[in-house]
Specification:
CATH architecture of the largest domain: 2-Layer Sandwich
Shape: globular
Number of domains: 3
Structural class: alpha+beta
Largest sheet: 5 strands, antiparallel
Distance between the termini: 26 Å
Bound molecules: flavin-adenine dinucleotide
Order of helices and strands: EEHEEEEEHEHEEHEEEEHEHEEEHE
């Protein structure tokens, strides 16, 4: 498919765009098309006119993703500056889906609004957080989200109340090709100093326990009910385990890291090896929390 056969845009449309630089693991293939819309109207017009057979997938900051080495077919949509604002209206925070979680948390703090401190420690965008009901320290998106604006693949834009998103632990019912473009949170008034202290506590705790400066994808597996995934992985003897250039973090065993030479296939194979060892050791079947998307690299015959 050539650029001429795609709808014209005001933003940026790039063919065969490398995705590894855009994701935390720094691995993976290319996007057939990478679209960075100028604004919501640009996105809506493009999606509406796009041939229906072309798949569409949003990309945030790539902090919860393995993009497979064969890349992503169709259009990958990355929301830039126009979608990165956070404004406050009374107790409401109105957020563009491209805004990083830390911006939401610090804007809420600056306005004396509590309940969003947990986003301080989640290094993705609001769109990614809304998609997977991100959470930490006993709070999650579903607790404070009011509604989300969604660009649907067939072209319609819908505002969905939180109740319509089918939230469960680290899960929403949003279709894979739906793009969150914005949302509103309702926060409660709080003491700025207390909010600030809680955010500092979260930052310090993360620094001490997680490999934040590594090429990683956050928690690899969901915590099974009543259990800790990291503990199961540790008990199965997987701390430091390697496949190719991928390694189970020595610092936090629910994190996989790219030591520098990993491919996405290495990271995924390591995750599956860990799952097999945990199953053999404890009988528990771990479920991936990190999303794995795209095509496997075809091996030469
Ligand atoms: P991406 O990784 O880019 O994408 C993840 C999924 O969301 C994909 O399916 C993608 O298609 C979809 N998506 C992204 N943007 C949109 C959008 N605008 N509309 C629709 N779908 C979209 N997560 C937690 O919940 N709690 C934690 O405590 C936590 N700690 C982490 C710590 C570290 C060091 C790291 C690296 C990650 C951590 N994560 C945690 C995981 C990650 O930060 C969250 O899942 C985050 O919400 C992902 O956002 P993102 O923008 O990076 O999404």
């Amino acid at each position: 498919m050539t650029a001429a056969s795609l709808p014209s845009v005001r933003g940026r449309l790039t063919a065969d765009a490398p995705l590894a630089p855009l994701v935390w693991f720094k691995t993976g293939g290319r996007a057939e098309w990478l679209f960075e819309p100028a604004d919501g109207e640009d996105l809506e017009a493009f999606i509406t006119a796009l041939p229906p057979e072309l798949p569409v997938r949003a990309l945030g900051l790539g902090s919860n993703l393995i993009v497979r080495d064969g890349g992503l077919p169709g259009v990958t949509v990355r929301l830039g500056k126009a979608f990165s604002t956070v404004t406050v209206d009374g107790n409401w925070l109105l957020c563009g889906a491209g805004a990083p979680g830390i911006l939401v948390a610090s804007t809420a703090r600056d306005h004396g609004l509590a309940g969003l401190e947990f986003l301080r420690g989640i290094p993705g965008t609001v769109g990614g957080a809304v998609r997977m009901n991100a959470g930490a320290y006993g709070r999650e998106v579903a607790d404070t989200l009011c509604d989300a604006t969604i660009q649907l693949r067939e072209g319609r834009v819908r505002v969905c109340d939180v109740g319509a998103l089918g939230y469960r632990y680290r899960h929403s019912d949003l279709p894979d090709d739906a793009i969150v473009t914005g949302c509103s949170f309702y926060a409660t008034p709080g003491d700025k100093a207390v909010i600030s202290a809680e955010m500092d506590r979260i930052a310090a705790e993360r620094e001490a326990s997680q490999p934040l400066r590594s090429r990683t994808g956050g928690s690899t597996f969901k915590n099974p009910p009543g259990l800790k995934a990291w503990q199961l992985v540790d008990d199965a003897g997987c701390r430091g385990l390697m496949v190719g250039g991928a390694q189970v973090s020595e610092k936090h065993t629910n994190f996989l890291i790219n030591t520098g030479t990993a491919t996405s296939a290495d990271i995924e194979a390591l995750g599956d090896e860990v799952r097999a060892r945990v199953l053999a050791n404890s009988g528990v079947e771990l479920e991936w929390e990190i999303e794995r998307i795209g095509k496997f690299l075809e091996k030469a015959a």
